[in-house]
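input
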Amino acid sequence: MRATAVRKHQYLAGAAVNTFDWNDLRFFLAVARTGRLTAAARQLEADHTTVSRRLTALEHALKTKLYERRPQGYALTEAGERLLVRAETIESQALAVASEIGGSDLALSGTVRVGAPDGFGTYFLAPELGALAERHPGLTLQLVALPQTFSLTKREADIAITLEQPTEGRLVSRKLTDYRLRLYASQDYLDRHGPIDHPTDLAGLTLVTYVQDLLYSPVLDYFSSLEKYTARRYECASVVAQVEAVRAGAGVGVLHDYALRSFPELRVVLPDLSFLRTYWLVTHSETRNLRRVEEVHAFILGRVKAHRGLFV
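output
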């Protein structure tokens, strides 16, 4: 649905019907999701004065205040929260129309953002998604591999790989795969500190683990089950940093089995001591059926299935 095709939209508020430029909703959504004018402006490729002007015009047309302007950013008012639900519905319907009218026989195009934990995103998705990007030159894939959760409702991603199955919101999820983590150390570290044949051999050794107060999911807390053996730890906020620290001989780390295919110099220690976790593949119900989202969703499922042996 293009702005030139439909310039006006009606919003029902009580008994009054107010008319406004529906394109202003794009600016409203961007600020609602980022919380800041400058961030919304970058997202929309506009200047912040334009964003501010469009928000003011929307509030004037609706005769209501949509945001509280605060030092830390823009916070939605109660009216703004109600409009957010309507605006996201309109956005999703516009995307669906574009996808359906585009036709399934046309080349895949558009942008799909995939949010993933940094370990899975870096060591599995990054090399795998390249094949899909090459297959569809008109498709822009955005891989956001970070140690954080992603809000699909706020459109921080179109597809998310999560560590826990979501139970709230209009989200569609399915189990992607279980995966196993074990203790690893570099050969250099073992040469310096001796073999580790029993958990008690961890005494006095350094455990490379997460920064405890930055854990974004409780399933990442491996240290609590190992601290009875050693109190020494080197905390890194990302999987990538942990892998590099273990490779450099900084200590023993709980690392993903599938990631270690690239680092044959690392050795499994205490192979019977392992952690089993699960990845979930999540989409929003309103964008799940967009053809480009479906294609990327199916591709990720297929590649994980083809490499099942890496994970468990």
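quick obs: Residues 1-17 have pLDDT under 50 and may be disordered.
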